[in-house]
Amino acid sequence: MGADTFSPDVNGSAKFAEHLASGLASRGHDVHVVVPAASRAHGTWTEEYDGQKVTAHRLFSLRWPFHDWLRFVMPWTIRKNSARIIDEVQPDVVHFQSHIVVGRGLAAEAQKRGIRIIGTNHVMPENLTAFMPIPQAAKDVVIKLAWKAARRSFSKAEAVTAPTRRAADFFERGTGMTNTYAISCGIRASDYTPDFGPREGNRILFVGRVAPEKQIDVLLKAVQMLPSDLDVHLDVVGGGDQLKNLQQLAETLGIADRVSFTGRVSDEELRASYTRSTVFAMPSIAELQSIATMEALASGLPVVAADAMALPHLVHDGENGYLFTPGDAADLAAKLERVLRLPEDELQAMKRESLDIVAAHDIDRTLATFERLYRGEKVSDPAVSRPSDEERSSAA
């Protein structure tokens, strides 16, 4: 498996790659991951995830100067390193998680050797350009070139996947490719603990990278608009380059005493944050699936999310939460207030609906589907997210 971001990075793509690697190892597979080194130390060693051991080939990397944690492998070294590792390991399958550097090298060298290739896209080029100090016109050119580069690498794969149908459609529009499978990143819902007891205060939770595309500033403005009688507290869990800016914004809005910026937390602390919250908010406009939102569903939380990208697959308006107009703080505030003022029986119904929706995203189903792709077996498009109201209406 090749990835340009992997543990200890905290993002959806890294988390999926980690859980896929450990899940496959738990099913008896010999799993090797080719990923950037997380520090100056690089080489090959055993790493443990979810109690499972995988072999990590950590390649020399440097930190991207315009990002607080992102590291990258030298592009001119990846073909040589890929060839060396593939020849040492002799894999049956190569599965790459992005085409940026590592996936590009692994796909090229695996194709030369006739090894089966699977590719999964977690990348939105628009997100990458956010960290480039260049004019918008130049960013548009970079985005176009990035999609062309993606096509070159993904066209080498026997099967291409994306986390949701919308993410697959987005990928196909960008690359001009077709027949992309929609396979959920998956989640082990039993790791999370719903709380159906009486509410003790109103806590809004956001989990994710503190980055521009997450639009946390919209959430802060929405919290400032909420009536004081709701006595709301917002927890922002995650680290990122926008942390200081958002802390300053909270001060400016006069809500600093009602907002906690926790930074990165342990898995135990994260799960506890979900359990004690009343509602989960996801204002991001760039989610190809959103593992954090699935974790919230598994914790039995109603969700208020932007009506953008793949979020409507997880948030069914009026059923387990509400969708709001992206970027519209007033609409977000209105939808949050609607949840926070729900009668107890209606709130409990939303919580149960969240659990029902996330049940379709069981990680074992994801692992079994990828195993079939690895073996070259034919699979039907296993898009596991239930259709939105709009999609159901279209089908009718």
Automatic annotation (TrEMBL):
Domain Glycosyl transferase family residues, every copy: 200-346
Residue ranges constituting the Glycosyltransferase subfamily 4-like N-terminal domain according to the UniProt record: 10-187
Pfam families: Glyco_transf_4 (PF13439), Glycos_transf_1 (PF00534)
GO biological process entries: carbohydrate derivative biosynthetic process
Superkingdom, taxonomy of origin: Bacteria
Cross-referenced InterPro entries: Glyco_trans_1, Glyco_trans_4-like_N, Glycosyltransferase_grp1
UniProt xrefs under Gene3D superfamilies: Glycogen Phosphorylase B
Molecular-function annotations in GO: glycosyltransferase activity
Keyword annotations: Glycosyltransferase, Transferase
Protein name: D-inositol 3-phosphate glycosyltransferase
UniProt source species: Cnuibacter physcomitrellae
Cell inner membrane recorded as keyword: no
